[in-house]
Amino acid sequence: MATGPAKARGRVHAQRAANSTAVSAAARAGFVARGVIYVLIGVLSLRIALSDGGGKQADRGGAIAEIAEKPFGTVLLWLLGTALAGMALWRLSEAAFGQAGPDGRKASKRAMAAGRFVFYGFVSYSVLSYAAGDKGSGSGSSDRDSQDVTAKALDWPGGQWIVAVAGIAVAAAGIWIAARAIMQKFHKHLKMFEMSEKARKVIDFLGMFGGAARGIVFAVAGTFAVAAAVQHQPGKAKGMDDTLRSFTETPAGPWLLVLIAVGLAAFGVFSWANARWRKV
Hints:
By secondary structure, this protein is an all-alpha fold. The chain has ten helices and no strands. The longest helix has 35 residues, at 197-231. The protein is globular.
């Protein structure tokens, strides 16, 4: 039995499917959806900075609830959730067959793609569940979820160490995200040669500013998790909403949150640029 050649042909067909126009379109739709969420989080954060936000959450749940309140909101949520499923599918293809670029098949790259597949799969499921009528899905408080998870973890044997390591990992990831954005590492993922000089300058600014703001939020959230572990107080852990609100408590007052909010919106617009020029 020619099982070897048959398996090889199967892998070739699967890889062709992963590199197909459909998967490329799914990835680009996913970047559009990610951009929508970050722009809305930026807008909600700006409201909090300037007027306390009117009870709205500046996180993914708040963005979903904001969309749901609009005309045809349910339809928009179905489109958003489907687009995020497309992003998950693309990340799965990267995990299975490697990313675009000379080092795209490295084990570390494929592992990161697998993690992103799980993340976007979960986000897609939560948005689609909300659109289907499960109002408790997707729009929950990130702050409450963070504190609940932290409280459970702290009760485990060695829980303080587990939470502390997780917090350090999140903080390190935030610093890594911000540093890569400032160093314009995103260039290697974009078709820079297809852009005009003006477009390159705008996208460089959006990528650097938006990526740095996003990284700072992750880094600060990770720091709060470490504090929760050290003090054994789950309430010290903060989701995105409380993390963003904490910027108003600095000496810069609400203006630091204004800067971060604009940065998150900029990252959303940068995601839309990825939908146009990303190498997929």
